[in-house]
Each structure stands twice: as C-alpha cells, then as structure tokens.
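REVIEWER CHECKLIST
Item 1: Sequence provided? yes
Item 2: Single chain? yes
Item 3: Sequence as submitted:
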Amino acid sequence: MVKKCLVLMFGFLVADTVVAAPQNVDDISVTQIILDGENYGGCMVKVSPLLPSSTGCGRRDFVSFDCNGEVRNTKSHGKAMLETAQLAFLTGNVVRLRVDNSYTVNEAFCVADYIRIDKSS
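Item 4: Structure as written out by the authors:
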C-alpha cells in the first residue's frame, strides 16, 4: 500500500513539472517595446495574448531578445530580432516566437531565439 501511494505521489509531481524545451508560440502581438541597458537582457517586448502556461515562463506577458548577448543570443542576433518585433509593432502584424524556459533573464522572463512576422488576417 505504501508503495502504491509513493508511486501515485511521484506521478502527480511529474505531471505538474514543466520540461524545459523550446516552444513555438503563434499569433502574438507586440504591444510594448522596452530598451534597458542593465535589465531584461537589454531589450524585451510585451506580448498579447499571454504566452501559454505550457512554456513554463515565470512571466508570460514579456519576452526578452537578450540584446546584451548574455544568455542565449549574440548581440547582433538579439538586436535583429528586436528590429523585427519593432516592424511588427509598427505595422500591426503578429509574430511567431520560439521561447525556451531554460534561458531566462531577471529569473522570470523567457528569452526568444526565433521571431517571424506573419500578416494579420
């Protein structure tokens, strides 16, 4: 009986654990752009709707592009992604992001390493 309870409790623990893995998120609107020389990897965007909880990101309303090149991306790649997000923001188009909760800034914000602009329908 004790063995069954332990197996059952372990099953619940594993079921609630979010595995760190890259995840693509579609139809995201960029609603704010932040540049900061000390925090947030140098740049980040506010997104709508929130990132899905399945991403495992501590904060689901913002995504960093690691413009400082400290966590995931090179500086040039992070800045190019920021420019792509700015273009989507200005034109009102949505983006597709790939986020990975194993790369975070300020302990809560996931870092994206991929962005694609999609025409809004």
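Item 5: Key structural point noted by reviewer: The two ends are 57 Å apart (CA to CA).
Item 6: Recommendation: ____
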